[in-house]
Write a structure and sequence with these properties.
The complex is a heterodimer. In chain A, strand 2 and strand 3 form a beta hairpin. Chain A has three helices and three strands. By secondary structure, chain A is of the alpha+beta class. By secondary structure, chain B is of the alpha+beta class. Chain B folds into three domains: 289 residues, no CATH class; 115 residues, no CATH class; 58 residues, Arc Repressor Mutant, subunit A, CATH 1.10.10.410. In chain B, strands 1, 6, 7, 8, 11, 12, 13, 14 and 15 form a nine-stranded mixed β-sheet that branches. Chain B has a three-stranded antiparallel β-sheet with strand order 5-4-16, with no helix packed on it. In chain B, strand 9 and strand 10 form a beta hairpin. Chain B is elongated and about 90 Å long. The N and C termini of chain B lie far apart (69 Å). Classes of the chains: A alpha+beta, B alpha+beta. At the A-B interface, strand 1 and strand 3 of A face strand 2, helix 1, strand 9, strand 10 and strand 17 of B.
Chain lengths: 96, 481
């Protein structure tokens, strides 16, 4: 690879729906670029003879039969919700 | 200039199962909010998904019934997006290796009248893949409330080719899918419960033009009729825009069923970037012939095939089959009686679609629970066939049998419906009728065939409806000749 890989921090932040300060942008941008650079090492390997795979393990068909095991209580399920009403999670109005 | 519409549908169908697609928490509709959840559903760190075998069986069955190819392998991908309906911030779906490829749906368009079979055609499918359903948002004036009960339900997405041209095509397409799914037991496709949902891509182009026009995605099509009306409205709107020389811009519109019109929802923002990648938590699925053959053997005779067979084998008129066939249990009921007396199949069919349906509806009893079994119905058909009671009286006997579960003979005996006179009595009545009604007699003799009905009616009245009309007809003709 000729170019150093680079992440467009504004674009990624928008996709993740998070607001970043300029300081954070600079900081995370560097961190993410260095992670990308690390991953980029894989491109140094010759993979011409390697078949693409969806999963590193040669294991298939891991499933369970359709039998109900258990649910969680509503209280427990909603215990991390910042705000709740009528046993539902309250979120900012989503414009449709 | 003439314009034509091109329509493709994306149909989401929930697969019927006890538990969810990637965890064994209960799946269902109508439960208290957020009671059908567990760590996998609400996306707690460390929770791992495990496939539901029944969901895989279900989609393979659906795919085979819709003529798809089932490749040897498929895999799972994450579709990443941030929205409160998806606690994981991604949906697990199938991107480049769906479980069903290609296929087509046989549809029937409306005929000229209810008595005539409409045109059949095949609508091509692109693919069907499996994914998890998402939570449901309830919108209020200041905020939205999220219920995750629906999240994680096994969901198929059936994607059609842009192969339809009208709301009627789309209506027939959804009807056919729904009936096929119900027959296969894969889904009940109840749109009111969200078990089947459809979005449409609609574009309009001048007739003869090869490339497609700019497409509008139409949402909020909440019923099969809504799909038809929404699409037809949208076709008209786009055609009018083009006629006026306006340009269609790609956008999402919604159907407002109450107002009977479509309205602009949002412009197509920069194409979504879902950053699909293989889900590392789930192993790919390999499907062999043994599996495929097992599922294929479980697929029942499909609705249109059954209809064609009923029309051919039992010589049923289209009208009866079009009422019978959409209801699999009703068809099975009909056939278990008709098989035992094929000569009377049409009579049996009439009893089932008229009398039985009416009684079931009025009593609110299901076919499984009702006392009128196919064998009982046959006792009634046979007594009419033998001329013991008339068709008219049989109607009343049917109602009694339905209530009590007795055979036709038992009801006839109990109610004293058997004719309590002999043939001589019937001849006497015929003579009386002839003597009392000179006008119809004269008319009949001068060639008016229908005039005999007036005489017949008189005889039936004298017998309190118990005489055999065919026999009366014969006797009258004999006496008048």
């Amino acid at each position: 690879m000729s170019e150093t890989p680079h992440i467009d921090i504004d674009y990624v932040a928008k996709l993740a729906r998070i607001n970043l300060t300029n300081d954070e942008k600079a900081k995370f941008s560097n961190q993410l670029d260095s992670i990308l650079g690390y991953i980029e090492k894989l491109n140094e390997l010759n993979t011409d003879e390697v078949e693409p795979t969806a999963h590193p393990h040669e294991v298939f068909n891991v499933w369970q039969e359709d039998v109900v095991k258990s649910e969680m209580s509503v209280e427990k399920a909603l215990s991390n919700a910042p705000k709740q009403r009528q046993n539902m999670v309250v979120v900012p109005k989503v414009v449709e | 200039m003439e314009y034509e519409a091109v329509i493709g549908l994306e149909v989401h169908v929930q697969i019927k199962a006890e538990s969810k697609i990637f965890t064994r928490c209960r799946a269902g509709f109508g439960y208290e909010p957020n009671t059908l959840v567990d760590p996998v559903i609400i996306g707690l760190p460390g929770a791992l998904p495990v496939m539901n075998k029944r969901a895989l069986d279900g989609i393979i069955k659906a795919g085979m019934a819709l003529n798809c190819a089932i490749p040897d392998q498929c895999k799972w991908d994450r579709k990443n997006y941030f929205y409160p309906d998806s606690p994981n911030n991604y949906q697990i779906t199938q991107y480049d290796q769906p479980i069903c490829e290609g296929g087509y749906v046989e549809i029937e368009l409306e005929g000229e009248s209810r008595n005539v079979m409409g045109e059949h055609k095949k609508i091509k499918l692109t693919r069907i893949h499996l994914e998890n359903d998402v939570g449901k948002l309830n919108h209020f004036s200041d905020d939205s409330l999220v219920d995750y009960n629906r999240a994680g339900t096994s969901l198929m997405e059936i994607v059609s080719e842009p192969d339809m041209h009208s709301g009627e095509d789309a209506f027939a397409f959804l009807t056919a899918i729904r009936q096929t799914m119900i027959y296969c037991g894969v889904s009940d496709c109840d749109m009111e419960k969200g078990q089947m949902r459809a979005d449409a891509n609609i574009s309009v182009r001048p007739v003869g033009q090869k490339e497609l026009g700019t497409k509008i995605e139409l949402k909020n099509l909440n019923s099969i009729t809504g799909v038809k009306n929404g699409i037809n409205y949208e076709i008209k709107r786009q055609t009018n825009e083009l006629r006026r020389g306006n340009v269609i811009t790609q956008a999402t519109w919604r159907w407002d069923a109450d107002a009977g019109r479509t309205e602009h929802m949002r412009d197509k923002e920069d194409a979504h970037d879902y950053r699909y990648f293989p889900d590392p938590d789930l192993m790919p699925v390999k499907i062999d012939d043994e599996w495929r053959n097992r599922i294929r053997s479980e697929i029942p005779e499909l609705p249109f095939d059954k209809q064609r067979r009923f029309m051919e084998e039992y010589e049923l008129p289209y009208t009866i089959t079009s009422v019978l066939v959409p209801d699999k249990k009703m068809s099975d009921y009909f056939e278990s009686a008709a098989k035992q007396n094929p000569q009377q199949a049409q009579t049996i069919g009439n009893y089932v679609v008229n009398d039985l349906q009416r009684e079931l509806y009025e009593s609110g009893v299901s076919l499984d629970e009702c006392k009128m079994t196919p064998d009982l119905l046959l006792t009634l058909v046979n007594t009419v066939d033998k001329g013991i009671i008339t068709k008219q009286i049989a109607k009343a006997v049917f109602t009694e049998m339905y209530k009590s579960g007795e055979t036709a003979e038992q009801v006839i005996e109990r109610k004293g419906l058997k004719p309590d006179f002999d043939e001589d009595q019937v001849i006497a009545w015929c003579k009386e009728a002839i003597a009392e009604n000179p006008k119809p007699v004269e008319d009949f003799k001068s060639g008016n065939e229908k005039a005999i009905n007036a005489l017949k009616g008189q005889v039936m009245k004298k017998s309190r409806g118990k005489a055999n009309p065919q026999a009366v007809d014969g006797l009258l003709r004999e006496l008048l000749s």
